[in-house]
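2024-03-11 09:14:02 INFO worker-7 job=invfold-0412 stage=load source=structure_tokens
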């Protein structure tokens, strides 16, 4: 099951209630739960509403890209 859907259901919210709480449209919530991609700002709103730290976004949005900090890039180049 989709982790966003599971987390929403664990809170006891319908898609419409979750949409209202997060400031995202119900249509977008439905699409995300079906596995569609969304904007970073939408991911932030959803995770914030669910109480999930941003660092765990890849657990909830599998296709999320990992952003390297400049120091990680430098150490990767020298390796």
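2024-03-11 09:14:09 INFO worker-7 stage=emit residues=79
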């Amino acid at each position: 099951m989709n982790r966003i859907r599971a987390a929403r259901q664990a809170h006891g919210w319908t898609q419409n209630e979750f949409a209202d709480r997060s400031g995202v449209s119900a249509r977008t919530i439905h699409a995300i739960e079906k596995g569609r991609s969304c904007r970073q700002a939408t991911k932030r709103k959803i995770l914030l509403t669910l109480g999930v730290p941003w660092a765990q976004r890849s657990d909830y949005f599998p296709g999320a890209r990992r952003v390297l900090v400049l120091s990680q890039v430098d150490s990767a180049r020298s390796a």
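2024-03-11 09:14:09 INFO worker-7 stage=report msg="The chain has six helices and no strands."
2024-03-11 09:14:10 INFO worker-7 job finished
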